[in-house]
Amino acid sequence: MNITQESTGDLTATIKLEMTNEDYKKNVNSVLKDYQKKANIPGFRPGKVPFGMINKMYGKAVLAEEVNKLISDSLNQYIVEKEINILGYPLPNTELTTEMDFDTQENFEFFFDIGITPEFEIILDNKLKVDYYQIKADEDVVNKYLGDLRERNGKLSNPETIEAGDKIFGDFAELNSEGSINEDGLKGSAQIKLEVFKLKTASTKFIGAKITDKIIFNPLKATKSDIETASIIGLSTDEASKFKNDIQFTITEITRTELAELNEEFYKMVYPQDEIKNEKALKERIRKDAEVSFMAESDRQFMNNSVEKLIEEAKIVVPDEFLKRWLLENNQNKVTPEQLEAQYDSYIKSLKWQLIESKVVKEHGVEVKEEDIENHIKEYFTNMSPDNSPEQDGRLNEIVKSVMQNKDEVKKIYDQLYDKRLLALFKSTVKLVNKEINYEEFVKLATQIN
Prior knowledge:
Layout (H helix, E strand, L loop, with lengths): L1 E8 L2 E8 L1 H18 L12 H31 L4 E7 L15 E9 L12 E8 L2 H14 L2 E3 L9 E8 L12 E7 L6 H7 L7 E4 L1 H5 L2 H8 L3 H5 L5 E12 L5 H7 L8 H36 L5 H11 L6 H28 L5 H15 L5 H15 L2 H23 L1 E8 H11 L1
Helix pairs in contact: 1-2, 3-9, 9-11, 12-13
């Protein structure tokens, strides 16, 4: 078989396969002879059916099947041998490939279009600057955490009327411009703490109210916060920022918590390992815990920022027309050309990151081995129940063996370790541009960026 390649663009080419009778004849005859041995046709003893009859009955179908196999194997082998890094997979060129006649034709020509992976360079060093948001726990956050701790360890009651500080449960329904319930509008259940209201006239509507009372208010105006509004009506912060209507809130339950007193008994209860003697020390400990808990979100946003920066720096050019054609072919009856156009930029961004990630992982040796997963499982269960006895080792080995048989769990652990190592690589190579920010500002910023 003769295979040639002709460039059709900077990152596209057409591969031509020229096939003669000699390329497929042996395999076709071998398959037909096997059919002949197994054929059970009336009037002939098993295995004695004339080859000509078998050829007449099955020859065309066998020829077509063997030619298709040969095309696939030869094309793949050529791509591997020539070390062509292709995007997607080869697409048949229907304009150059003529219709085949398996009854009379012996020689065939096939044409396939390919997209070629672009060459690019990625250097991870301190010349690459990426924003890293250090989320600081301001006084509002610390007070909120402290309030939650005192409430969690306080005494509960269900009073008849609402006072400041109570937690209110109820059902809400969106109202229309005329003040009536919008039957097609937003509905749901929610809980409210009046301290999230920044608008005093909204919170005063609740003071003194009882179960079954209906309160009408505008959540966005009352809280002056996308985040708090989203929490009340169950939308994303972006959706909540656009929710302008009033809601009718029907009270179903009132819960009052007598906050735990700030004393040494309370300090010891919430932080038994620490020697906390006063409120100032407690707040400092809360601040430290809060900022540690925020690190996961900081790291997640740093990874997003790193991906954006690397895509920008790589300046990868891809064969758009080929990829659009490949995507339509790969998603037949699932994606229309119009939908593809709308989603194409997002897909290309994802593709570019895959190419960059693959290169980075290869060049920097980022990998997760089976033993890494096993060690992670052992460490997890050891931390849960510290025990250095020989029996513990045996139990751990049995646990590891059991978990490793769960493919979904293994995949989950693999992804966690892989992401952790990729994050560590970026944090140790690029220059982190540290920016202090409070939590509410961070949430708004992250929503806008992502």
